[in-house]
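Format notes (please read before filing issues)

Several people have asked whether sequences and structure tokens are stored in separate files. They are not. Every record keeps both together, in the order shown below: the sequence lines, then the token lines. Line labels are part of the format and must not be stripped during preprocessing.
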Amino acid sequence: MTEIIITKPDDMHLHLREGKLLEAVIKDTEKQFARAIVMPNLKNPVVDVEKATVYYKEIKKFSTIFEPLMTLYFTDELTLNEIKKASDSSIIIGIKLYPAGVTTNSAKGLKSIEDSYHLFEAMEKTDLPLLIHGEVSDRNVDVFDREKSFIDNYLIGITKNFPNLRVVFEHISTQDAVSFVNESSHKVAATITPQHILMNRNDLLSGGIKPHNYCLPVLKRSTHQQAVLNAAVSGNPKFFLGTDSAPHLRQEKESACGCAGVYSAATAIELYAEIFEKNNALDKLEDFSSTFGADFYQLPRNKTKLKLIKNENTIAKSIKFDGGEIIPFMAGNQIQWQSLAL
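Then the structure lines:
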């Protein structure tokens, strides 16, 4: 097969940042994705509907063809009234939970899961989805075990106590997460990134540290990588596309405390297409990228289309930005597909 046409995909997990960086990176996303769920962990976090509205308008200034799906940052200050306002809003798709200190710009994240149960109850009643970065931030827990620890200590309890709460387990990276989602009800789903399919911890640590492959959840051993791959190509509607594309300038990645996140937005759908083709699942790509996420979030499916053609090309080694540069995911590697808007 040398050409396929699919419904234009949605990215169900995306970091756009703000200001000049937002203006620069949104062009990569809008070429491939009709919509994206935009993360709220800015330097000035999106903690209420008013801030989400301001951020939404900023994004729309830079793109007329792309629709941002907004989220609120779940903090200890979140109120029942704000949940009601979010559920009534036409632009808010869900509320994002970061355990405090777990990743980039998560210092204002949730400090106590159990103390927020009354808020989960309100979200369940209004059918407002809970999006979770599912790792503990406890330094006593090995970094490779933090996803499993979150499942065992928190996620099982959340889904048991609130069986009708729609939960999205973001950027899963372990066999444990795949098993949890498979064994949960239809109210629980997960997003899968290209980096957790294409790489394992050898790609981060073998032969020297590779800072541009550093993300959170951190890359795991190959057995977990295979489990995540199998979930992505399975055709199970619980698993859908979410790149977690997160732009950082080169100097922020290549530093004494390198930022977590990879920038995959420039070639995301091409990378997924290559993955699915190599696993004899190209016929399942459209559901994974364009259907399952929209259905879970109760959104209409996109009307526009995207063409993918077989055309070997090379991912840029760097993307110039404001006197600096961003190193894209898989920089300098050859890929077999190219996307064309219709």
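For reference, the curators noted about this record: The first helix runs from residue 19 to 32. The chain has one domain: 3-341.
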